TrEMBL record:
Species lineage: Eukaryota, Metazoa, Chordata, Craniata, Vertebrata
Gene Ontology annotations for the cellular component aspect, listed alphabetically: cytoplasm
Keyword Flavoprotein listed: yes
Ranges in coiled-coil conformation: none
Span of domain Rieske: 16-111
Record GO terms (molecular function): 2 iron, 2 sulfur cluster binding; metal ion binding; oxidoreductase activity, acting on NAD(P)H
Protein name: Apoptosis-inducing factor 3
Keyword Amino-acid biosynthesis listed: no
Keywords, comma-separated and alphabetical: 2Fe-2S, FAD, Flavoprotein, Iron, Iron-sulfur, Metal-binding, Oxidoreductase
Origin species: Takifugu flavidus (sansaifugu)
Length: 256
């Protein structure tokens, strides 16, 4: 092959030697640079693999996390990722990590990245959308991460029926911890997914709607406005709310 005419796939890739094969022992990981891209290199169960170096939740450096078997746990909030596939396996966080090719040759470890994906730090798992002719309906009561993860998991496992998420919040699922970290946040900065995302994957989000009763015999729920909604399967994921218990002091000797 002419050395000046490389295959298009090779032209789009960047490969660099990042370390010696003996630099990492089994169960160890380190950050390496491929071009200007930080990559997490992992040696697990006798095999090298490479994934994105930052958690898809709040961008924490995963090299400071914990590696157990084929899973690395984020040091900030405990999100877990598979070091072989990059898939997220435990919340918090919704997105998976990019993966990179690894080759061990003559005692050296090489990592290959796609030049067009150098700026990508996370990815969405492949999902299907809704087929209108399928009438089967799964109703999710609650607008938090649990309901959203359920909806996405259904689409990732090729469920093509109707998905309805009902929440009394004014917004679709959003990142509530951010509310305690800054004032005057822009609405779009706290949403877990955009409106386009829900439309693309056929996930209906009904905001400012409240379910007040469930009829499991007829498989229907009653809304606060008196309307009824039928379902085939139901998930209640409304979370919990702190209930404060007050103790009043009767005398100076009593404790509050």
């Amino acid at each position: 092959m002419d050395q000046y005419h490389q295959p298009a796939e090779e032209e789009d890739e960047l490969t660099e030697m990042v370390c010696q094969e003996t630099d990492l022992k089994d169960g160890q990981m380190k950050e390496v640079m491929v071009g200007e891209k930080k990559v997490l290199l992992v040696c697990s169960q006798g095999q090298y693999s490479a994934i994105g170096s930052q958690c898809s939740h709040y961008n924490a450096p995963l090299v400071k996390g914990t590696l157990v078997g084929q899973r690395v746990r984020c040091p900030f909030h405990g999100a877990c990722f598979n070091v072989r596939t990059g898939d997220i396996e435990e919340y918090p966080g919704l997105d998976s990590l990019p993966t990179y090719k690894v080759k061990v040759e003559n005692g050296m470890v090489y990592v290959t990245v796609n030049k067009h994906a150098l700026k990508l730090t996370k990815r969405v798992k492949e999902m299907c959308s809704r087929i209108a002719d399928i009438k089967h309906t799964i109703l999710l009561i609650g607008g938090g991460p649990a309901a959203l993860v359920c909806a996405e998991t259904l689409r990732q496992t090729c469920y093509e029926g109707r998905i309805i998420m009902v929440t009394r919040d004014a917004l679709p699922p959003f990142d509530k911890p951010k509310l305690s970290k800054a004032l005057h946040l822009d609405r779009s900065s706290i949403l877990l997914r955009s409106a386009d995302f829900y439309q693309q994957y056929g996930i209906e989000v009904w905001t400012e709607k409240e379910v007040i009763s469930v009829n499991t015999v007829n498989k229907a729920v009653k809304m606060i406005d008196g309307t009824w909604l039928n379902y085939d399967q139901l998930l209640i994921a409304t979370g919990c709310r702190l209930k404060l218990k007050y103790h009043f002091r009767k005398s100076k000797k009593d404790f509050i």
